Amino acid sequence: MASLFRNTARLRPLTRIAVPRHVAVRSLASASTPKQATAAAAIQYDEPASEAPFFEQEPAGPSIATAIPGPKSKDAITHLNKVFDTRSLNMLADYKQSFGNYIADLDGNILLDVYAQIASIPVGYNNPALQLVSRSDEMISAIINRPALGNFPQSDWSDILESGILRVAPAGCNQVFTAMAGSDANETAYKAAFMWKAQTERGGPEVDFTQDEMSSTMNNLAPGSPNFSIMSFKTGFHGRLFGSLSTTRSKAIHKLDIPAFDWPSCSFPMLKYPLHEHEVENAAEEKRCLEEAEHVMSTYHNPVAAVVIEPIQSEGGDNHASPAFFQGLREITKKHNVLLIVDEVQTGVGATGKFWAHEHWNLSTPPDMVTFSKKAQTAGYYFGNPALRPNKPYRQFNTWMGDPARAILFRAIINEIERLNLVENTAVTGDYLYNGLEQLGQKYPGQFNNLRGKGQGTFIAFDHPKRDEFLLRAKTMGINIGGSGASAVRLRPMLIFQKHHADILLDRLRKMAADLA
Amino acid sequence: MASLFRNTARLRPLTRIAVPRHVAVRSLASASTPKQATAAAAIQYDEPASEAPFFEQEPAGPSIATAIPGPKSKDAITHLNKVFDTRSLNMLADYKQSFGNYIADLDGNILLDVYAQIASIPVGYNNPALQLVSRSDEMISAIINRPALGNFPQSDWSDILESGILRVAPAGCNQVFTAMAGSDANETAYKAAFMWKAQTERGGPEVDFTQDEMSSTMNNLAPGSPNFSIMSFKTGFHGRLFGSLSTTRSKAIHKLDIPAFDWPSCSFPMLKYPLHEHEVENAAEEKRCLEEAEHVMSTYHNPVAAVVIEPIQSEGGDNHASPAFFQGLREITKKHNVLLIVDEVQTGVGATGKFWAHEHWNLSTPPDMVTFSKKAQTAGYYFGNPALRPNKPYRQFNTWMGDPARAILFRAIINEIERLNLVENTAVTGDYLYNGLEQLGQKYPGQFNNLRGKGQGTFIAFDHPKRDEFLLRAKTMGINIGGSGASAVRLRPMLIFQKHHADILLDRLRKMAADLA
Q1: Residue B369 near chain A (CB below 8 Å)
Q2: What is the pTM of this model?
Q3: To probe the interface with A, which of B126, B152, B250 has the most A CB atoms within 10 Å?
Q4: Would you kindly state where each structural domain of chain A is located, as residue ranges?
Q5: By its UniProt entry, which Pfam families does this protein fall under (chains A, B) (predicted)?
Q6: Is A499 a catalytic residue?
Q7: Topology classification of domain B137-417
Q8: Which architecture, in CATH terms, is A21-129+423-498?
Q9: pLDDT digits over A344-394, tens only?
């Protein structure tokens, strides 16, 4: 399936949800709209926002009733902690009362949510179109008749894929292996890379396994279990299961005490900001990293089957690199016959002003595999090269191999993205938000440092010297916001985040900056 | 939460679905019951089955209209294969037309399904009670407002756990870490074991990580990434991601070309059947395996943090061992301070005549962790020891950490198991089925070899000299059945499989045996 989203910012509206935009949304939602938050006047910032809201029943602004957590939440958290680890709990949410960009809690607090479940809610809480799809007979059947997709796929599985997941496949990819979440999406892609490399070295798909391979693998030993590797980048994040964690290099706390494969890492460019003031240094830094990458991938003692990289290192601190860097990496991987896996788990599905962040790079040849999860609400890896299908069945296989219910949901998300033209929305709103933050940075020096994400939709971050205090204080101002790396504040609003939401966010950030100045 | 299912075969009926059994089911289902299959007269076998059907609208028997795959299925499979690997495809299913124990395809074939999506459908296709729950506002919200459970759990998460997953927690377990599927359930349990072992060696939860640990783990090296191991058993299966695959020892095709950890394996008892004719040899075999296990776990060069074992090795060929073996293993692990992880992914949730298969063992101290998936339709690991909660937050963490929608479904499955008394049903029906197979074995020598699973509910298997032909031929007789290991036919009917279904199965198996005799 060709992607409708490739090389175009404006998307063709779908007839699938053939209803006038706001009227229909209002009527669909009427049964389950949470009560309006007490209107907190949206304070204008910079230039007035004028576009019509996507969801008119959304609260007009945040509304703070108690400290967070308030008394009801505290009681509930104490209870939950008896059976479920709550030490990473950020906020106990009341999703019945959440709507659009706003998340509610048990104590009546309603926050503008620019963290969005770690960048994974695409089109708003209680989105009416998703609600409708979730009530459909098709969804009900997918929930209660969950198939072992590799053995007993449902008869409409090709339709679900082609009208959903594959309709937005990146250029060069026309097949998918579905999975459950980001970690196993990456790990199954790694497995495909290892099988491909072994097959290449063996002399092609027709060459049979040797007896030595067949017996040694049962003892986890070479040659059957070869010492191949995946190369990843320092400060990168690719998941937390054993293979994916071996490529994750974000923070020690993610990795400590867990055995890891002897796989190589190399430096990701650490650029200086603002970019236009450091062009020469940054180009040199990217050149240095590419040279290191080429050296490592061509010399590491455990041969490198694939390189995995995020378009923007997200958990690791919102580290960006230029298209030239990624073009260079693609060239090096081609030269050394190493596969390139682009991990779009956090960057994918519209947040950067393109449907896939790697569309910003204009590569001469596409990535070999692209992984996705989070905003897709399902997961997997895309590929195009038929040699990446293992040469025999049951080599890439598991019981469920994904979840048709979540694939149906992703299709509805894609339809909603088209209907509301949300990829363009993130591009336009992102520029507006970036400009506002740039102005805040000028007004409050030292508080919005290394602002990054220009031209990358709403995928924006900055460093703050008191980051953790900043995040906590944001909640008291009605903003739910997240961090990444050691000192970054990362903005991960939903795709339905509009200029009037940006105005509210900028206003609250301005007040916080004034308090901290 | 104490388990309602422990030490009791008869379950208290729930008031949650407070409706008369058959009347309610019929009325709930009326909107979406598939049309009745052409009644194939159920032929009585051995003794007549007399119990009332759980679902009166279920087809009276299999119905075969075409070869499988038929013309419509063939076309659809060809189409699907362009975008999705279909080489492991067994049967393209039409779930709209499937009901209860019967699976349908596009060509009008309706088969009695004793494979059940690789042992993962618990209470029947289009189960009316699950249908009702799937239409609830609670489910809709869980589907469209999917939380990052570690950060922003929904306010009723403790209730969903306590009234569902934890209500059936195995003895000794009162906490859960939720996951997505069997592989990551096992891998997160392994991670908990490694963190526990490192903490023990470090001197307790209060002892901080050293600088050396913090820096070495970023390069995947010891001491931060220690060379600890998980011991597993030969012919065991624990999943296909990198950590779980390193403990899987079922077949070479599952492991070839994938790098693996240097982790140890040891022999699982290979018992001789019938058991009562080989008591002395089998006891010696189990003793030998225990001695080997103790030797390996106490001497392996990569120190063993935990042993993982299936109560019945399923993918590896339906290999059983006695309670005495498992009691011995528990003693050895205690003695050497090694954790015992029981992998109940395939055996759990009622199929063996107990809710958890390891309840058959009467252990003096419970397993340290128990993993689950498949029939639970969600996944995770149970634990009781508070030291298995890592000493700091964000050590055991990922974005979704499971799926509340699937947790809500599991709760509905538990309710249905209670309402229909399904654990007792598998015990009673299993005995009936086992006896029938034993008689078939006497009548057709050499075709129902090494019959196993006596007293293990419907978790029954036998070896057949022409296994693959046998499985294919079964489809033409209206039976969907699976294999395991090299030569086993494994029966994995749903929990709603009753004596009248067993009669049909036994009748068809008898005809096949007569043809092959």
Answers
A1: no
A2: 0.92
A3: B152
A4: 21-129+423-498, 183-400
A5: Aminotran_3
A6: no
A7: Aspartate Aminotransferase; domain 2 (3.40.640)
A8: Alpha-Beta Complex (3.90)
A9: 999 999 999 999 999 999 999 999 999 999 999 999 999 999 999 999 999
